[in-house]
Amino acid sequence: MPDQPAPDHKEIDKLLAAVDHQLSCLTEQRQASKRERRRLRRSQFVLRRRAATMITRTVLRVGLILSGTVSFVIGLIFLVAGKDGGKDLLEAAAAAWGLAAVIPPRK
């Protein structure tokens, strides 16, 4: 058996320190990627919610405007025809238009 030189402990310590440093770097990168993933998921959730809110606002606003217009026209017809309920329909039209005006428009 050939004589092998004694292992150099300084070399092994250097290798272990390098591996330990690499492991800590990978752990930090993993934690950073987890934080980034959470941040992206939150921002995607916020964007989806904002889009749904904008669509809902728009649909509600258009619906209120249309129902106010229909109530106004029918109320005018009732008033001209002399039937009861014309004033109530005009009040409902004013209320619907007022609510539509309060809802902020889509940006």
Concise account of the structure shown:
The chain has 107 residues and is mainly α.
Structural summary, described in words:
The structure is a single chain. 84% of the residues lie in helices and 0% in strands. By secondary structure, the chain is an all-alpha fold. It has one domain (10-102). It is rod-shaped, with a radius of gyration of 36 Å. The termini are far apart. The model has no long low-confidence stretch (mean pLDDT 90).
State the main characteristics.
0% strand, mainly alpha, 107 residues, rod-shaped, single chain
What's the helix-strand series?
Answer: HH
pLDDT under 50 segments (min length 5)? none
- The overall number of domains is 1
Structural class per helix/strand content? mainly alpha
* Large-scale geometry: rod-shaped
- Average pLDDT confidence is 90
Query: How many individual β-strands?
Result: 0
Main sheet overview: none
Distance between the termini: 84 Å
Number of helices: 2
Task: Tell me the helix content.
Answer: over 70%
**Binned strand content:** under 5%
- Which value, in Å, is the CA radius of gyration? 36 Å
